[in-house]
Amino acid sequence: MEKIFSRTKGLTSLPFHYCPGCTHGIIHRLIGEVLEELDIIGDTIGVAPVGCAGFSLDFFSCDFVGAAHGRAQAVATGMKRALPEKLVFTYQGDGDICAIGTSHAIHTAARAEKITSIMVNNAIFGMTGGQMAPTTLAGQITATSPYGRNCQLAGNPIDLPKIIATLDGAVYVAAVSVDSPQQIIAAKKAIKKGFQVQQAGLGFAFISILSTCPTNWGLSPVESLKWLRQNMLPLYQMGELKATKEVSAL
Amino acid sequence: MAQVVILGEYCKSCGLCLSVCPKQVLQISDKSNQKGYYPVEVVRAEQCIGCTLCGLMCPDLAIEIIRT
Amino acid sequence: MKGNEAIAEAAIRSGCGLFFGYPITPSTEIMEYLAKKLPQAGGTILQGEDEVASINMCYGAAASGARVMTASSSPGFSLKQEGLSYLAAAELPVVVVNVNRTGPGLGGLGPAQSDYFQCTKGGGHGDYRLIVLTPSKGQELYDYTMQAFDLADQYRNPVLILADGFLGQMMEPVELKVRSREELPPKEWVTDGCRGREKRKIASYALTNEIGEANCLYWQTKYNQIKDRLQRWENFYADDAEYLLVGYGTCGRIAKSVVLTARQQGVRLGLLRPITVWPFPEKAFWGLHERVKGIMTIELNAGQMIEDVKLAVQCKTPVHFYSRQGGMLPTEREIWQAFCRTFQLALTEEEL
């Protein structure tokens, strides 16, 4: 009688407030498990965004700080500079980091801040009710692109990990997804590496995770996973976009 | 083999676990939890092979798996 | 030493561990000085990508319990307003400097006091307040900055040093006094990793309106407590004064010369120089209306502090206004002539 699968100590016992089938929850689990496995719950401070994950402060067992919308990486920078021997990570939605937070996304990477940044990309602003985000796909219908995102009018989706990978300060950049158990296992590896890179103080680690938003996509949880596979996966460069020699040697 | 334990109050009846279980061990029940969701229930316990795919896929950590 | 450098030296001597900033005239020397000297003092300085980044870096650093400072000038200070609201709500002690330059818009580099409302009434969203100190000379830039760090920790609130371009750029002798270690509350709220203790969080949202109101009432009680204990001003010949000048910072300093001129002419003029403009020193004005016939505020804006003075005297005494704007400074004579015209006092021959 041995439990081979149960709630990680990296998470509190609080049930999540996310919509049914929203894969934020899976990502929380992966981070919680990584925190537990690396035994860093007591040495890590998380920085939460504003958005669906804005209330994630109470879900994680580690200390957590809530940042203003888009500012998580700036807050994390200040915290890491103040506590260089502690581990700091940011957890942001695609709207939080690709829209308002872009300047910090670029400069945090450019300065090789020794933090681990996680972007959860569900191609929409979830919390505010499904508005178009910079990552919204061409033709995707949202509350503010009711006729489908018109690229002449509102531009094309941004592939942030690809951009971040061009910055020397970013020593590890991975683009993963949680749309299937196999992808989830790969995502966990990437998250774990992201924290190990920080433990080794090698530079800035960035992990982008494709995620679903059944409520605002207007699809069932299971259909959302399919939609993600058919529409988002082909659009973005996936896998380990960048890993310096030192990172690969970890 | 293995046994799936559903934590009914955490489950939001999203069905992701059903979609990945190779042995159709689980099914949406007809009794609602306090929040009004109809949690998943184990219907073919003996079929469970302990692959933990359901646990991996659950966004609310409503599933525990025990190796018997 | 230059005013800006006095602020920076005071920060170092106050144990300021981190500085985050962005270049903007006329406050940049603060960052330049710290870039040279803070690392040797074991501190960290980082130039952010913009002022929004800098204030949010302060948020993160302050959450660790370290002493943190940032500095800017009016346009940059405007970019920090959302961050300041978050700092006040999360009750994070940070020392912020605004070397007021002329505005609105790009404005100019000259001294001004046109950010008064933004600093004292809150430029960001929500009912929050910053403790605001207004130095009027080099020594005070040094002394008030040191006090600011203690006040920030004592009240767990951001504290603002409101200077102006003139003060920041002017060179003056400054005595680098050592400030006695004040007894400050321990920081049991820092989020520096929960190993060996309960998990903590620092945030400013309220999930329900009930919690929201409870938070607001708590903040207001704190601000009322500060308002009760922390009103500071300088009383210069004001005890027997029939007329009063009110001015802070550079204007407060110039006004002193006017008071001395008046006294030589036999006019009982005095000066109340606010040291804190939030909490505004209302106590200094209580009961004045029996004795004081008229008040004139001297400001470098279109009339902002005058409203607080009128409120403090409940309009029982006429409050007049004299100002220069756009970076111009009033001369002592100018103020004296304006004062005499306003209160129909006989000007001596050579002034006319």
TrEMBL record, chain B:
Pfam families assigned to the protein according to its UniProt record, in alphabetical order: Fer4_7
All copies of domain 4Fe-4S ferredoxin-type, residue ranges: 2-31, 39-68
Protein name: 4Fe-4S ferredoxin-type domain-containing protein
